């Protein structure tokens, strides 16, 4: 796949969490505008390997925009310049020939760099483990229609559940806050009848874990919502605030 | 009460404190602006001086004055605490940040705008609160209205006040609707109304405040 884009890449290189990193500059040429951003990095890495250099480490898995693995802070924005896409769904036609592209890892106290552009996002897993679950009886699943759910609740829960846990909200936030993520995970369960048993405990436990992990507070700038590849709404953060404070004032 | 202090010290609790004290200060500004706007009656400050005297003597208002200082102090200290805490959450800064692509500059600059406002409030308190409450300079011949005339004769003071009002406008433009979001009030039915009222409130109240020093300076108020 040959193309005609010649680009200058400034990529953050860092050996591991213990060593300090720095930017390295690379030239790539003949990049096709039909390539995804990750495929462009693949081209660079092939060359680095051929030249005996260490390839750029970056996270990726499904490459179809649904797994949330790819990260990269591209030219000052998580997942690059386009709205509603992950980095694997960002294509090189969004860039111009001769452009310089700066690529950094997600920057947050709670997301330590593992290597180059790969960060450790297991803080998100621990927030989920703190309360993002429901209790169900063993045995056969009951008939789905036996649990009436208002259509708008089902829609809102589904929209919140679209969160893929990529961490773009944290990366975009000036406070490295994980409120959009945590609120989506609280909302998807709080809105459904299956989530009622643990509802109050869930809100308190997940917020406590979020703070414990070292994420910041919310300034309501809306940067997270604007950068979220899945369009998770700020309404979820307002719902989390309601869930949390009603839990604080009513739980025993 | 450990549960309450624990939750008020959580990231959500700090924001709740910010929102409640912020909305309290918003309500104060309505009273402050309404009373001061009586200078525009152009009655030689008669109505304004009556109002000022009522505010100075009424025991309920005097009590609320203490509550107001308490609320302001809480808002400042909580804001400072949030700013310090949030700074620590990103120890390595980005080399390139395109903030304008995803948020308004004033929503990202509430700490800066708040600091400018604090500096303005200190100057403002020195000008009028200190003068009227802590000195004996206030007489029937030299009322608070006369003091306003004297203070706003200086062009430097007028510029400081107008800059203070601009900081106020942007601080409120984000703060007003942000407070409701923090309180959990986000709903398609009323959020557009809150945002609309917030924007109107921020702009109108700041313009009325800014108009006072300008009008005094240009001798439009007698």
UniProtKB/TrEMBL annotation, chain A:
Superkingdom field: Bacteria
Pfam entry (one): Fer4_8
SUPFAM superfamilies: 2Fe-2S ferredoxin-like, alpha-helical ferredoxin
GO biological process, one term: respiratory electron transport chain
InterPro entries listed in its UniProt record: 2Fe-2S_ferredoxin-like_sf, 2Fe2S_fd_BS, 4Fe4S_Fe-S-bd, Beta-grasp_dom_sf, Helical_ferredxn, SDH/FRD_Iron-Sulfur, Succ_DH/fum_Rdtase_N
Cofactor(s) this protein requires: [3Fe-4S] cluster; [2Fe-2S] cluster
GO terms of molecular function: 2 iron, 2 sulfur cluster binding; electron transfer activity
4Fe-4S ferredoxin-type domain: residues covered: 154-184
Family: Belongs to the succinate dehydrogenase/fumarate reductase iron-sulfur protein family.
Protein name as it appears in the record: Succinate dehydrogenase/fumarate reductase iron-sulfur subunit
From TrEMBL, chain B:
Stored InterPro entries: Cytochrome_b-558, SQR/QFR_C/D
Taxonomy, superkingdom: Bacteria
Gene Ontology CC terms: membrane
UniProt keyword Cell inner membrane, yes or no: no
Keywords linked to the UniProt accession: Membrane, Transmembrane, Transmembrane helix
Residues annotated as transmembrane: 16-40, 60-80, 112-131, 151-173, 194-216
Record-given protein name: Succinate dehydrogenase cytochrome b subunit
Species of provenance: Aquirufa rosea
């Amino acid at each position: 796949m040959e193309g005609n884009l010649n680009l200058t890449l400034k990529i953050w290189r860092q050996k591991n969490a213990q060593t300090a990193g720095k930017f390295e500059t690379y030239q790539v040429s003949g990049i096709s505008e039909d390539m995804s951003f990750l495929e462009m990095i693949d081209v660079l890495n092939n060359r680095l390997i051929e030249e005996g250099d260490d390839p750029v480490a970056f996270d990726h898995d499904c490459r179809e925009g649904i797994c949330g693995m790819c990260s990269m802070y591209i030219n000052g924005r998580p997942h690059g310049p386009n709205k509603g896409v992950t980095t694997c769904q960002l294509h090189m036609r969004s860039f111009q020939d001769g452009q310089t592209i700066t690529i950094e890892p997600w920057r947050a106290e709670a997301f330590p760099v593992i290597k180059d552009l790969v960060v450790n996002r297991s803080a998100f897993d621990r927030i989920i483990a703190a309360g993002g679950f429901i209790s169900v009886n063993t045995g056969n699943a009951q008939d789905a229609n036996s649990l009436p759910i208002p259509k708008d609740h089902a829609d809102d829960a589904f929209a919140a559940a679209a969160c893929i846990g990529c961490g773009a909200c944290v990366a975009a936030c000036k406070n490295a806050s994980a409120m959009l993520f945590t609120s989506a995970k609280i909302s998807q369960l709080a809105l459904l009848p299956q989530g009622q048993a643990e509802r109050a405990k869930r809100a308190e436990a997940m917020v406590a874990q979020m703070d414990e992990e070292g994420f910041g507070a919310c300034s309501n700038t809306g940067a997270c919502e604007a950068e979220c590849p899945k369009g998770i709404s700020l309404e979820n953060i307002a719902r989390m605030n309601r869930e949390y404070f009603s839990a604080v004032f009513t739980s025993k | 009460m450990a549960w309450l202090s624990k939750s008020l010290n959580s990231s959500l609790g700090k924001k709740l404190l910010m929102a409640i004290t912020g909305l309290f200060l918003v309500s104060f500004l309505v009273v402050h602006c309404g009373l001061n706007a009586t200078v525009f009656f152009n009655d030689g400050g008669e109505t304004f001086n009556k109002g000022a005297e009522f505010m100075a003597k009424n025991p309920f208002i005097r009590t609320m004055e203490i509550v107001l200082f308490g609320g302001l102090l809480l808002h400042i200290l909580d804001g400072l605490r949030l700013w310090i805490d949030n700074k620590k959450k990103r120890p390595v800064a980005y080399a390139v940040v395109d903030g304008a692509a995803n948020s308004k500059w004033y929503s990202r600059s509430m700490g800066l705008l708040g600091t400018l406002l604090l500096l303005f409030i200190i100057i403002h308190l020195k000008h009028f609160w200190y003068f009227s409450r802590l000195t004996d300079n206030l007489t029937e011949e030299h009322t608070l209205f006369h003091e306003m005339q004297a203070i706003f004769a200086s062009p430097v003071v007028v510029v400081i006040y107008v800059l203070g009002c601009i900081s106020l406008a942007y601080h409120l433009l984000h703060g007003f609707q942000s407070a409701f979001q923090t309180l959990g009030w986000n709903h398609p039915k009323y959020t557009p109304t809150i945002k609309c009222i917030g924007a109107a409130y921020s702009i109108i109240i700041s313009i009325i405040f800014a108009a006072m020093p300008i009008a005094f300076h240009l001798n439009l108020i007698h």
